[in-house]
Amino acid sequence: MKKEELQEKFSEILKVLSLLQDEADTFDFLRDLLSEKEILEFSRRFEVAKMLQNKVSYTDIEKKTGMSSTTIARIWKFLNWENQGYQKALSCLKSITYRHQEGNHF
Hints:
Oligomer: single chain
Largest sheet: none
């Protein structure tokens, strides 16, 4: 499926996620929408992206997360070449963390 088609099917969910401003409300929505297994899978994939960004080896990532080298390679590809959604999300997270550490709470 093309990116545009997939985005169109997902557009209402994207709108809701962008409008929910409370972390608890966002979690409640995602918990209703996704299974526990899916939430854990998303969390592990994001953890892998963070580890790859921090130059952790595939072997160490496999041991820590239980993810296959194929999945890790796919995440690396998206982190570095494809949509760069991971890069954007990690940059946003880094910015929020930096502001929080500096005492500039939102």
